[in-house]
Design a protein that fits this description.
Helix content: over 70%
Distance between the termini: 52 Å
Largest sheet: none
Shape: globular
Order of helices and strands: HHHHHHHHHH
Number of helices: 10
Strand content: under 5%
Number of domains: 1
Radius of gyration: 17 Å
């Protein structure tokens, strides 16, 4: 029962439609019907600028971090340990963000919430992934490509740390990194098609066109 409670809370926390609410407050618009049509921080940036983007980004990360770090502890006492609970609750929070019950199950792409989960579970690889993200978008100006590259870099970094340096990597952490990478690639299917066709929108932070 405690585990079920934790999972339900994590789903609803992940489902909180931060960008959607921000769009309503800032401009009275449903951001799913304008811009790129995505209910995420990047689309909010294109419509309202950097400050709302940063606020929503931090809040979406917090959803994943809180779910994985603290809400998961409600489920302690069963057969799962803290790390296992954290990874499980983190995945549920990301699913809540992508399939938000408050947004007709049409939420964001899950990148920021997934980053919050990794911050709770594996902060080192997350910092490396942020570096990859920043480098890719600074060169290409494609946020989607930066997000995908960052997601893929986490399992790559964990595998390299284990194989090359003998680091102790629990299978739960590696499995989580692979699963989140697959989920992020799946939510970016349309972006990948546009990238291949050369039709993807570019985003120039601090220097909007």
């Amino acid at each position: 029962m405690a585990l079920t409670t934790a999972l339900v809370l994590c789903y609803f926390l992940g489902s909180f439609p931060t960008a959607l609410i921000a769009g309503k407050i800032l401009g009275g618009v449903d951001i799913r019907t304008t811009g790129s049509g995505n209910a995420g921080a990047t689309n909010l940036y294109r419509l309202f600028g950097l400050k709302p983007y940063m606020a929503v980004l931090m809040l979406d990360m917090a959803k994943g971090f809180i779910s994985s770090k603290w809400v998961s502890q409600i489920g302690l006492g069963g057969t799962l340990d803290g790390l296992e609970l954290g990874t499980l609750c983190g995945v549920v929070a990301v699913l809540g963000h992508v399939f938000s019950v408050f947004a007709s199950f049409k939420g964001g792409k899950g990148v920021a919430t997934a980053a919050g989960v990794m911050l709770a579970v594996a902060p080192g690889p997350l910092l490396a992934a942020i570096g990859v993200y920043l480098v890719v978008i600074s060169i290409t100006h494609y946020v989607s490509l930066g997000s995908i590259s960052a997601a893929l870099s986490v399992p790559a970094w964990l595998a390299t740390s284990r194989i090359a340096f003998g680091a102790e990597i629990r299978w739960e952490v590696y499995s989580l990194s692979v699963l989140l990478a697959v989920m992020i690639i799946a939510t970016h299917r349309a972006n990948i098609k546009r990238l291949i066709k050369g039709e993807e929108l570019k985003t120039r932070f601090f220097n909007k066109d």
